[in-house]
Write a structure and sequence with these properties.
The complex is a heterotrimer of chains A (284), B (384) and C (314). Chain A is an all-alpha fold and 284 residues long. Chain A has a single domain, classed as MetI-like fold (Orthogonal Bundle), CATH 1.10.3720.10. Helix content of chain A is 77%, strand content 0%. In chain A, helix 7 runs antiparallel to helix 8 and helix 7 crosses helix 12. Chain A starts with 6 loop residues before the first helix and ends with a helix. The C terminus of chain A is likely disordered. In chain B, strands 3, 4, 7, 8, 9, 10, 11, 12, 13 and 14 form a 10-stranded mixed beta sheet that branches. A two-stranded parallel sheet of chain B has the order 1-2. Chain B has a two-stranded antiparallel sheet with strand order 5-6. In chain B, helix 7 packs across helix 8 and helix 8 packs parallel to helix 15. Chain C is mainly α. Chain C is 68% helix and 0% strand. Chain C has 13 helices and no strands. The longest helix of chain C is centred in the N-terminal third of the chain and has 42 residues. Chain C is globular, with a radius of gyration of 26 Å. The chains are: A mainly alpha (284), B alpha/beta (384), C mainly alpha (314). The interface between B and C is large, with 42 and 36 residues.
């Protein structure tokens, strides 16, 4: 018998899974449905199908600017975070070093700090040293928040790469940097994309820290937040948020699928001989 | 931030700003001085005199207006856009406290729209400069009594444009209008149907209900403030919600969720056709406000801002403002016969002088203990 | 590619080792310097600044007080923020909120994580993604969705008020559904459940199934196996999940602000308001430092469960 679950238990758990999934997705689906409702208030009754809310946001210059700013900040965050996370993750996996616990504590601490406190601490920092606030300061904060996530995405991936590959490369005469460039980096590539994507997503959606240090810049979540607190035509805003959300879900799913496929490819490759891989590593 | 000499410098606001702007940082954060962006020019230059500002053709032209929600409507400044200037970029605040806080935190804007009582706060932040009224043709048509409230030390820091009351709107089918007092907002009989605005003026209203003369409520001694605050905390349990969005408050009154709400005249104008409502200017005197445009010292669009203010001050814009919101407008040329007579009567728009004078009304003014008031209000919100 | 033959006979180690170790330390420092410096400058230093600001070692605004414990004294003496534990006090209100949300999340997601890890078989990672994906979408949108659904004029209540459904009468509301503490707990649980499933899943997935088989072979029922083998072994994941939700929720203010109504003012709201709605920066800094101390204490107790492994799923 299966020690983990009984037949009845299996049915019950599947049912619970399905219910939870419905619970998680239903509000979003309902929101999407109502974004086609020809009504200014998001509620019953249904007054006809319309796509006008999706057209309206194209005319809203403030909204478009907010989207642009968010994309810029998120891109900056993704690039910088990945650039910082890769060496950190490598150090964690491949190196033994003094005070590993302390260092990992510092690097991972932003995961657990309440964002409101982090936001005001950056506000105080920037005011103390006189840096004017802008999209760049938002990016700075987002990089701190995203860094632990990126490291956590990269660490298991680096662990999967057998150190024997890198040792073989070095035995064959390549220096540390060359080994990294020709062996480790290509193998890490899918994980890099994952890390960059998760940083991008975190930054694009982040509102708390951004609200304190944005200066004159408006990010999309800040715009969305202000619309929730002040009177405006909500359906148009929802339409945009829905579009953004659908795009981000698709991107995340695509990246995960890509990562899994790359995983399988790595497993097949490392199953082969090390010399073959070292020779083929030169061609990336 | 370490060392006694640095501390002395940092304590003095003037030298601290120069120090921080010019020197960057000491100690562990010194590295970042290299990344510091250059500070905007004109921050410490002379405040008045158009001579120090570029002519209008050289200005960037995109005005950033920090405004009350709804004040981005084009008809409020239609002359500005009709003259070919670019439509301003708008940011919104919920109340002026928030606008002040954002400004202190470094938020950049060209014009803001605070009540006159906050002008001194903006000056204290070194954030605003006086207007050059010679650049505003419509200024001569504005009510001088109102414009005086926008002056500090004889300089016109604010172009006062609109005025109104912070009174109470009641559903006359549920509430007895003859009580005529701010006590509606604290009435146990109306429990669950009261709505407050997110402002420390609730505490002032509580004090007035407790018998403090309205003009004294702007600067109460600590024990009085404490008593008013505790009264609010006690009566807070009667509150349905604390509104930040006035159209949501309108909806709540319209649907009968709320029977008595802290409201500006716009609530009456927008609800009177739908449900039986009355606007109460309480017997203790109504707290009223006059607000207008202030000019940021770091603005790059000095002349554009003046054109914007002139458009706001126009009689046509003012007439529409009165009809839409029920507020008063400072322009004396407005033909009140074109306004709903009921609105004129209820809000006394034909005689601002009388209706804004004490003891019928207490117009907003600087709160010397704003921090203590805000802290008290936060405690009220935290205790409900 | 040139091939250099490096002959390393056993025992020749000491001669080649020493320069390698220096290179190693240098390399490690080079690897860590970027991220560590960034985090120290933009995370550790700001927190230190907040602490210093709260006691006036640093001043920023014109009216800031210098070198004073006044704000800390104000915080501790006010009956609003701390007061008698578990009853009054804004901080304790937030603690209750965090507790309620964390417990709910763990209870809801444990069965699902169990199913994915031990029952689902080959499709488990895909299905895990299905559960987690909502968490990666817009937080505000998900709160907004419930705001739109729950509010008296929103989808649910207008539906119930529709004459054909007739559960509610014209003008009648379900008061506790919106602008209430229930709404806060409900929406926050909704937001966090996907995230919580992950550490529990990781813990359950790494279980050695042979242990379970051994337990049942020895005659234990499945329930006993669960209670005495699976559950205890998965506890580190559960605690990690709990702490991952509990700590950030202590400072949560957006959901309380959007769906909580007047009684939904939380500790995070007070901190935010002191910076965004008034000038009480030093007082707000004292409140923030208090929260940091609370978080630090929690981390000291539960920190060992929050290691890299517990959230790094394969």
């Amino acid at each position: 018998m299966n020690p983990a679950i009984s037949k009845g238990g299996r049915r019950a758990l599947w049912a619970m899974f399905v219910l939870l999934t419905i619970f998680l997705y239903a509000p979003i689906v309902i929101l999407i449905i109502f974004s086609f409702n020809n009504r200014e208030i998001v509620s019953f009754p249904w007054e006809g199908f319309t796509t006008r809310w999706y057209h309206e946001f194209l005319r809203n210059s403030e909204l478009l600017n907010a989207l642009k700013t968010s994309a810029f900040v998120a891109l900056l965050t993704a690039i910088m975070t990945t650039a910082l996370a890769v060496p950190a993750a490598i150090a964690f996996v491949r190196r033994r070093f003094f005070a590993k616990g302390l260092v990992s504590g510092i690097l991972l601490a932003p995961l657990v700090i309440p964002l409101v406190v982090f936001g005001i601490s950056l506000l105080i920092l920037f005011n103390t040293i006189g840096i004017p606030q802008s999209a760049l300061t938002i990016a700075i904060g987002h990089i701190v928040i995203a860094l632990p996530f990126a490291i956590l995405v990269l660490v298991p991936r680096i662990e999967r790469i057998p150190p024997s590959l890198e040792e073989a490369s070095r035995d064959l005469g390549a220096g540390g940097l060359t080994t990294f460039r020709l062996i480790t980096l290509p193998l890490l590539f899918p994980a890099l994309i994952s890390a960059a994507l998760i940083s991008y997503t975190i930054s694009f959606d982040e509102v708390v820290v951004a609200s304190f240090i944005n200066g004159e810049a408006t990010t999309f979540p800040l715009y969305l937040y202000s619309q929730l607190r002040l009177p405006r035509k909500l359906p148009a805003v929802i339409a945009v948020a829905v579009v953004v959300m659908v795009v981000s879900v698709l991107v995340v799913v695509a990246s995960e699928v890509g990562r899994v496929l790359a995983d399988r490819r790595l497993e097949r490759q490392t199953g082969g001989s090390v010399e073959e891989l070292a020779l083929s590593g030169g061609k990336g | 931030m370490r060392g006694s000499e640095l501390d002395v410098v940092l304590r003095n606001p003037a030298t601290r700003r120069t120090f921080l702007r010019g020197m960057g940082v000491a100690g562990a954060t010194g590295i970042l001085a290299a990344c510091r962006k250059s500070v905007e020019p004109g921050a410490t230059g002379p405040a008045s005199g158009a001579a120090s500002y570029a002519p209008i053709e050289q200005e960037p032209g995109l005005l950033h207006a920090y405004e009350w929600a709804g004040y981005d409507a084009g008809w409020l400044y239609s002359n500005y856009t009709k003259s070919g200037y670019e439509k301003p970029k708008f940011s919104f605040f919920v109340n002026t406290e928030g606008a002040l806080a954002k400004t202190a935190a470094g938020f950049g804007w060209d014009t803001d729209h605070p009540e006159v009582g906050y002008i001194q706060d903006f000056i204290n932040l070194d954030a605003i400069v006086p207007w050059d009224t010679s650049l505003i043709p419509n200024f001569a048509r504005l009510n001088p009594v109102l414009e005086k409230t926008g002056q500090i030390n004889g300089q016109q820091y604010e172009i006062v444009l609109d005025w109104g009351y912070s009174g109470v709107i009641i559903r006359s089918d549920h509430v007895d209008p003859s009580i005529n007092s701010y006590s509606y907002l604290f009435d146990d009989d109306l429990a669950g149907h009261i709505s407050w605005f997110d402002s420390n003026w609730i505490i002032q209203m509580a004090a007035m209900v407790q018998g403090v003369p309205g003009n004294e409520t702007f600067d109460m001694p600590p024990d009085q403030l404490e008593a008013a605050k505790n009264f609010c905390i006690e009566k807070g349990k009667n509150v349905y919600n604390i509104w930040t969005d006035y159209t949501q408050m309108w909806d709540d009154v319209r649907q009968g969720n709320v029977w008595a709400a802290y409201a500006w005249p716009d609530a009456y104008v927008n609800l009177k056709a739908d449900v039986p409502v009355q606007y109460i200017r309480p017997k203790e005197g109504v707290l009223s406000w006059a607000e207008g445009l202030v000019l940021r010292n770091t603005t790059q669009d000095y002349h554009h801002a003046h054109q914007f203010a002139d458009a706001w001050a126009d009689a046509g814009a003012g007439l529409k403002l009165i009809n839409v919101y029920g507020y008063g407008h400072a322009n004396l040329d407005i033909d009140l016969s074109k306004v709903d007579p009921d609105v004129v009567k209820v809000f006394g728009l034909d005689d601002p002088q009388t209706n804004l004078s004490e003891p019928a009304s207490f117009i907003d003014r600087f709160q010397p203990q704003r921090k203590a008031y805000n802290r008290a209000w936060e405690e009220v919100k935290a205790s409900i | 590619m040139a091939v250099e033959a490096t002959v390393e006979p056993a025992g020749a180690a000491p001669r080649g080792r020493r320069p390698r170790r220096h290179a190693h330390v240098g390399a490690t420092a080079a690897l860590l310097s970027g991220p560590l410096l960034w985090t120290i400058v933009f995370f550790v230093v700001p927190v230190v600044l907040v602490a210093m600001y709260s006691v006036g070692f640093v001043t920023l605004l014109r009216d800031d007080q210098y070198n004073t414990l006044a704000f800390w004294r104000l915080f501790f003496s006010s009956s609003v923020y701390l007061n008698t534990p578990f009853s009054e006090g804004l901080f304790w209100r937030s603690v209750r909120m965090s507790l309620g949300v964390s417990v709910t999340c763990v209870l809801l997601s444990y069965p699902v994580a169990y199913m994915l890890a031990l029952v689902a078989g080959r499709r488990k990672y895909t299905l895990l993604l299905v559960i987690i994906a909502p968490f990666l979408t817009s937080y505000l949108l998900r709160v907004l969705a419930w705001r739109v659904l729950l509010n008296p004029n929103g989808v649910i209540q207008t539906f119930l008020r529709d004459p054909r459904v007739g559960v509610l009468h014209e003008g009648q509301n379900i008061a506790w559904l919106y602008n209430s503490t229930f709404a806060i707990y409900f929406v926050l649980a909704y937001v966090w459940v996907p995230f919580v499933a992950l550490p529990i899943f990781v813990a359950l997935e790494s279980l050695d199934l042979h242990l379970l088989e051994a337990s049942t072979d020895l005659g234990a029922s499945r329930w006993t196996t669960f209670r005495r083998v699976t559950l205890p072994l998965s506890m580190p994941g559960v605690i990690a999940a709990f702490v991952f939700v509990f700590i950030p929720t202590l400072g949560e203010y957006i959901t309380p602000q959007l769906v909580g109504g007047p009684g939904g003012h939380m500790f995070g709201n007070a901190i935010q308001a002191s910076f965004a709605e008034s000038f009480d920066w030093q007082f707000g800094s004292a409140m923030s430092m208090f929260l940091i101390f609370a978080v630090a204490i929690l981390l000291a107790i539960f920190g060992r469960y929050l290691n890299v492994r517990s959230v790094a799923a394969g």
